[in-house]
Write a structure and sequence with these properties.
This protein is an alpha/beta fold and 275 residues long. It is built from eleven helices and eight strands. Helices cover 37% and strands 14% of the residues. An eight-stranded parallel β-barrel has the order 1-2-3-4-5-6-7-8, surrounded by five helices. The radius of gyration is 22 Å and the shape is elongated. Bound molecules: 3-methyl-2-oxobutanoic acid and sodium ion (NA). It is found in: Cytoplasm.
Length: 275
């Protein structure tokens, strides 16, 4: 089998094969990536990418569950990981367990992801001990945008020790992997060499054990802004707008629908012709 399908499969990739992942929020997109990705993340980026929110803070459990259920219908082999939304896990390990269990039970996800390092280690330990595989997420943690003062690079200069301590703390607590978002390349490489669990980079380093991107970013579908770490592998937003403009022009010129799109008043005689 080409792709990983459990959290333990992901963990076992460390030092062996690069881990491929993307976010997904819908069934058709999940279908496109199932055969190519080791895991698919139902990210709380859904709030910004599909719902027009200006941060991830407004994303709810119900939104995550609905998108998680949609993604699950499109996956057969890749592991599905689902983000815990802001406010669903920070209070206590018990609160985190209750909501993580609900996310997994109602969507079929094989693991959850939550943001935070040292301060979330106790919660990660609590979840893992009770059957919930946890992917950690350190460096730039978008749910903390208001205390971080923006979406800045994390771990430069004297901040590097904090991010390294976060990585060690989540690994010690039993996380099966850790996302490193927007940290300097050298620090990402140092963390990758230091911890026994796979690092998943986004704006980090090609030396990470795996990579993740937001699918709408890499397809050029989300164009409100482009982070430096995003590579656009397609321009679907441009394609979509051009297609919509062409449709609008044809409707206004009465060129669409054309003869092949309309129905005769009598069914055609038996032939290859589609009714
Ligand atoms: O929500 C998200 O898309 C994420 C990834 C960018 C790691 O957390
Ligand atoms: Na996220």
């Amino acid at each position: 089998k080409k792709t990983a399908s459990s959290a333990e499969d992901i963990r076992a990739c460390k030092g062996k094969t690069p881990i491929v992942s993307l976010t997904a929020y819908t069934t058709p997109m999940a279908r496109f990536m199932d055969a190519h990705c080791d895991f698919v993340l139902v990210g709380d980026s859904v709030g910004m990418v599909l719902h027009g929110l200006t941060s991830t803070l407004g994303v709810t459990m119900d939104m995550m569950i609905m998108h998680g259920q949609a993604v699950a219908r499109g996956l057969q082999s890749a592991l599905m990981v689902i983000d815990m939304p802001f406010g669903s896990y920070e209070e206590t390990p018990q609160q985190a367990f209750r909501n993580a269990a609900r996310l997994m039970a109602e969507t079929g996800a094989g693991a959850v992801k939550l943001e935070g390092g040292v301060e979330m280690a106790e919660t990660i330990r609590f979840l893992v001990a009770r059957g919930i595989p946890v992917m950690a997420h350190i460096g730039l943690t978008p749910q903390s945008v208001n205390t971080l003062g923006g979406y800045k690079v994390q771990g430069r200069d004297e901040q590097a020790d904090k991010v390294l301590a976060d990585a060690r703390a989540v690994a010690d607590a039993g996380a099966f992997s850790v996302v490193l978002e927007k940290v300097p390349q050298k620090l990402a490489d140092q963390i990758t060499a230091d911890v026994a669990i796979p690092t998943i980079g986004i704006g980090a380093s090609a030396g990470c054990d795996g990579q993740i991107l937001v699918v709408d970013d890499m397809l050029g579908f989300f164009t409100a802004f482009k982070a430096k770490f995003v590579k656009r592998y397609a321009q679907l937003g441009d394609d979509a707008e051009a297609a919509i403009a062409a449709y609008a022009a044809e409707v206004r010129a009465r060129e669409f629908p054309a003869p092949e799109h309309v129905f005769a008043d009598q069914a055609p005689k038996k032939s290859a012709q589609k009714k």
